Automatic annotation (TrEMBL):
InterPro entries: DUF1697. Pfam families: DUF1697. This is DUF1697 domain-containing protein. It comes from the Bacteria. It comes from Autumnicola patrickiae.
């Protein structure tokens, strides 16, 4: 059995697309997902998956749409993948302030031409590094003031995206190991 983390995009932000974590947990139970735990209201689910062949992203997206009446993109990573991302953050050397670090999870690996085009943008002092299906972000100021948003990466890389601050990434990793 593998620990997995489902990261939902755009729920419970500004009172829109509201889903209570208890309701999300119950929905997961209805889908046969076990050992479900949620973390903060932004839509993070830690669980165990026994069948690796099940497309959990689509399964959760469909169930959320049917139950709550709106579409919510879902990105799933394994605990092992999350550990690799934590170990490989290229911006750890720039700061000891984890509030400056963020991780954008991509729905799929973008096309090389889209990566090259996106990497041509320079928004210093903010920086980013695209690696497979993820984008490491360093923000000198506040993330919400940066141009390196979900919408920026979705538009340029032509794939779905959702971002978590580094504190949340570390907590999700800790919970998935527990």
């Amino acid at each position: 059995m593998n620990s997995k983390i489902a990261i939902l995009r755009g729920i419970n932000v500004g009172g829109k697309r509201k889903i209570l974590m208890a309701d999300l947990k119950n929905l997961c139970g209805e889908l046969g997902i076990t050992n479900v735990q949620t973390y903060i209201q932004s839509g993070n689910i830690i669980f165990r998956a026994t069948d690796p062949s099940v497309d959990l992203e689509n399964k959760l997206e469909t169930a959320i749409s049917e139950k709550f009446g709106f579409e919510v993109p879902v990105i799933v990573r394994t605990s092992e993948e999350l550990q690799e991302l934590v170990d490989q953050n290229p911006f750890y050397s720039l700061t000891t302030d984890i509030n400056k670090l963020h991780l954008t999870f991509l729905k799929e690996k973008p096309a090389q031409e889209n990566i090259q085009q996106t990497e041509s943008f320079d928004y210093k002092p903010d920086r980013f590094k695209i690696q497979n299906k993820d984008v490491f972000i360093y923000c000198e100021g506040k993330y919400h003031q940066s141009k390196l948003t979900n919408n920026f990466f979705e538009k340029k890389l032509k794939t779905g995206a959702t971002t978590r601050n580094w504190k949340t990434v570390l907590k999700l990793l800790e919970l998935s190991k527990g």
